[in-house]
Specification:
mainly beta; 55 strands
């Protein structure tokens, strides 16, 4: 029988000798003949509560396995004639080794050598040498010094997500307690190194002489050293009094205690420690301190604040929400009050700013045919100027918002959309808010198409008809003068527009395409205005009338377009040939004069003291459009050119040629209004673009006025410049732009952009507007250079000629890795005309392995400032940082 791990046999001495010889032959000799061993140790080696099994030797695999085919022959106790002790292990112990395995029957010790591994009930032990004592149920694992293997892994102990490396370990399989020496373990983003660890059955650990760090090196760059530590896996780490040390050198920084959450789910509420800054105008400030509240698996909440000793403060609320496979979004709300200067200072000022941002995205699969998305960005014009250190945010002066709900009927051509929009220009303080914006679409249909067509398509079957309804309700105001309490319904502009487009396309003469189009528009307005000159007050009076008013217009025309190819081939030389493609188009469009009879949508009135009458529209304030004034019978002309070259290329094994685009586009457009009594020609418009060697982008455009200018009366004359002998036309504006970009090859294998977007860390970074914190060291350097030339010709009554207003700007930006861990980014520019450097910024980043250093500077100008930070990378120690900044309000440093 088995008792306390000892073998007691009730047999004679001859039978005992035979049994020992058989046991030696089965269990020991196979291990001596092979270097690879895999064995299931049965009750003869390590006691276990195993029923209905027998021992079977497998010389091919050199292993001892359980044979379930003999279960029907009785229990193991009946077949062996022995009794298994009640204190035997509860599960099978699987042991492997690459060198050898030794069983010492006298001492009941089982030894494994060479990459030894023991697996028992989810507990995995690995070491160069493992010794198991059956009498005490204690396994001892030790490391072996091997100078031939420099990168040999440390011995490890694993149970679930817990993994500990060590120099030596003693583990009791029965009590599930362990003593570990020189242990190294990881919990979340943190690493713990301990001289000795005691492990309890509940998986908790007590450490002696420990260091906690987020540096993954065996000799960490920094750490928090403490004599006592307790680890509760997947919950928290608690320490006694601790001292921060850097490169093994203690610092004067002490902590009374330490607490580090190690929850793998990354969802726990807690305080956010603030950073600090010292500013001349606002005083000592504590930045972004607050509390993170994890409400549930769907919603969280983060509250932060900035507080300055001279009275300035700011509050920030951030909330993320997600319902998987249905929708997700986030909300940001902030209010800031900035005081600069003392109360007795006449230059002191107080500014109040707020910002509100909301993004919402619905999963398209959650409810097919219905979609709801939101992207709201509303803030005061000076919010970024007064509260941000980010260059891109400071320069931003346009903000848009859009909230949209749309419904598509499956199998139907209908689409209904409801949206609210917001446009804000912080330069001129103007804000446009549209609420709501209703649209109903009917996709273009072929109403005359036969249900069962036979033969070729008839001409009338190509006619398509659509329908669009758009209704708007909009208010325009200046953000400095807006007061919600004084808002009235009459402050809004509203109206509805109906459009019915009819079109058809045909091919004639095989290479010419003819497009016919007719459009009908109807406008429903709620406001009419009447203006007229008042001789008594010598001002223009405006009368408004509220009520329903309808007006209509229509137009029709057709367009001819084709493509003409020109080719020149060469039999010899590097150039195979040239190909020139011209795309001419001619269009005719007609529209009647809706200002006069029979429509009479306009009225005549005086706008000054003269008796001159002017046609005015009562719907001139309409936001949905109005019937146009004047008859139009215009003929439009357009010509697009594309030039390519084909060269012989020996590297192209498929065709042996390579196409090079010499000119992407060279366009010319104008029109001639046959129905007008003067100024029939429209402006001549030219544009061109090309790309030279995929390195230099060139864009150019110019506008010419075909009519002569009267420099005395300061107006255009009906006489053309050609008739006056002044050439093709009068140049009014011209633009030329050059741009080039260079970048080095990426180091290593680039990660798929789509795969990166699937990570939660990436989505969290984007939600919290943290893209500017990302530094990519895989690209050693990048350079971007642009040049912009703008010319405007303005008529001058003084010189009786056109004067040129020229602006030229060169901008340069890029970054470079001076070393594998140093990156410097610079953005600057130069105004050639004013001979001044434009807004410039310098960003310096240093990767310190487990730390990072950032320095952002605006070296000169009104926004002259800097921001320096030195912090730990890991989020668990994100409050261990040093910051120093000087705001632009201080103006000197």
């Amino acid at each position: 029988m088995l008792s306390n791990g000892k073998i007691i046999l009730k047999i004679s001495s001859i039978h005992l000798l035979r049994f020992c010889f058989a046991l030696f032959a089965v269990m020991y000799l196979p291990f001596c003949t092979s270097a690879q061993i895999k064995s299931h140790i049965d009750s003869a080696l390590i006691p276990a509560k195993i029923a209905d099994t027998s021992v079977k030797s497998d010389t091919s695999g050199l292993s001892v396995k359980n044979d379930s085919t003999l279960q029907s022959s009785g229990s193991l106790e009946d077949r062996l004639g022995i009794k298994i002790s009640d204190d035997a292990l509860d599960d099978v112990v699987v042991a492997t080794a690459t060198d050898s395995a030794v069983m010492d029957i006298k001492t009941n010790n089982f030894r494994l050598y060479g990459e030894a591994k023991v697996d028992y009930d989810g507990r995995k032990l690995s070491a160069p040498k493992i010794e198991f004592n059956q009498n005490t149920n204690i396994a001892m694992a030790t490391d072996v010094v091997d100078t031939s293997k420099k990168n040999r892994p440390h011995p490890t102990f694993e149970q679930g997500a817990e993994k500990v490396s060590y120099d030596s370990l003693q583990y009791n399989f029965k009590s599930q307690r362990a003593i570990i020496h020189n242990a190294r373990s990881q919990y979340g983003e943190g690493f713990i190194q301990s001289e000795q660890i005691k492990r309890n059955p509940d998986k908790s650990l007590y450490g002696y002489r420990n260091i906690y760090t987020t540096c993954a090196l065996d000799h960490p760059h920094f750490g928090i050293r403490t004599n006592r530590i307790k680890i509760i896996p997947e919950q928290a780490i608690a320490t006694g009094s601790a001292n921060i040390e850097i490169e093994g050198v203690p610092t004067p920084l002490f902590l009374p205690f330490g607490y580090f959450p190690v929850n793998n789910e990354k969802h726990r509420s807690g305080f956010i420690l603030p950073g600090y800054t010292v500013e001349v105008n606002r005083g000592l400030g504590f930045l972004k301190g607050g509390y993170y509240l994890y409400l549930n698996d769907y919603v969280d909440l983060q509250l932060q604040t900035d507080i300055f000793t001279k009275g300035s403060f700011a509050g920030y609320l951030t909330s993320n929400y997600v319902n998987k496979y249905r929708y997700n979004g986030n909300v940001f709300l902030s209010y800031a009050l900035n005081k600069t200067g003392e109360e007795f200072d006449p230059l002191a000022q107080i500014t109040k700013d707020f910002a509100f941002r909301w993004t919402h995205s619905k999963d398209a699969k959650s409810l097919p045919g219905v979609n709801f998305n939101a992207n709201v960005n509303v803030q005061t014009g000076t919010f970024f100027v007064n509260n941000s250190y980010n260059t891109n945010q400071i320069l931003q002066n346009q903000f848009q918002s859009n909230i949209t709900f749309s419904k598509n009927w499956v199998g139907k051509p209908y689409t209904f959309t409801v949206s609210a929009t917001h446009n804000q220009n912080t330069a001129n303080k103007q804000v446009n808010v549209t609420l709501p914006d209703l649209s109903f679409f009917v996709n273009a249909r072929n109403p005359f198409q036969r249900k069962n067509p036979v033969g070729s398509v008839r001409w009338y079957e190509k006619i398509t008809v659509g329908y669009t309804m758009n209704s708007l309700n909009r208010i325009t105001f200046y953000d400095t003068a807006f007061q919600l309490s004084k808002l009235e319904f009459d402050d809004f502009q509203n109206g509805m527009r109906h459009s019915v487009p009819i079109s058809a396309n045909y091919s004639i003469f095989r290479f010419v395409t003819v497009s016919f189009n007719v459009a009908y528009n109807e406008y429903w307005n709620t406001l009419k205005t009447q203006r007229g000159y008042n001789d008594a007050t010598k001002k223009v009076d405006t009368l408004t009338e509220r009520g329903f008013a309808a007006s209509r217009d229509f137009n029709g025309g057709f367009t001819l377009n084709t493509q003409i190819y020109g080719m020149k081939l060469f039999k010899k030389g590097a150039i195979k040939g040239f190909r020139h493609v011209m795309r001419p188009s001619v269009g005719i469009n007609y529209r009647p004069d809706f200002a006069k009879s029979p429509f009479d949508y306009y009225y005549q009135a005086r706008l000054d003291s003269t008796q001159k009458l002017t046609y005015l529209s009562p719907y001139e304030q309409s936001i949905i459009g109005l019937p146009p004034q004047g008859r139009n019978g215009s003929v439009s002309f357009g010509l697009n050119n594309n030039l390519q070259m084909k060269v012989r290329n020996s590297k192209d094994t498929a065709t042996g040629f390579k196409n090079i685009v010499l000119l992407d586009a060279l366009d010319f457009n104008t029109s001639y209004n046959m129905a007008a009594d003067s100024f029939q020609w429209d402006f001549y418009r030219f544009s061109a673009r090309t790309n030279i060697g995929n390195l230099l982008n060139i864009n150019a455009s110019a506008n010419f006025d075909p009519y002569q200018w009267d420099y005395i009366a300061m107006r255009r004359t009906p006489r053309t410049t050609q008739a006056a002998g002044h050439g093709f036309g009068r140049l009014t504006t011209a633009q030329v732009g050059f741009g080039t970009s260079f970048r080095s090859k990426e180091k290593g294998k680039p990660k798929s952009a789509e795969a990166a977007r699937e990570t939660e860390d990436f989505r969290s970074l984007m939600r919290n507007n943290g893209y500017n914190n990302y530094v990519d060291f895989n690209i050693p350097w990048t350079v971007n250079i642009t040049y912009a030339f703008n010319l405007e010709r303005r008529a001058s009554a003084f010189s009786r000629s056109d004067s040129s207003v020229v602006s030229q700007t060169v901008t340069v930006g890029g970054d470079i890795n001076f070393t594998p861990r140093w990156k410097v980014a610079v953005n600057t520019g130069y105004n050639v005309v004013e001979k001044q450097i434009t807004f410039s910024s310098i960003d310096i980043y240093r990767d310190l392995h487990c730390w990072e250093m950032r320095l952002s500077m605006i070296p000169f100008g009104y926004r002259k400032s800097f921001n320096f930070s030195l912090n730990v990378k890991a989020q668990v120690l994100q409050d261990l940082r040093l910051t120093r900044r000087r705001a632009f309000q201080d103006a000197v440093f």
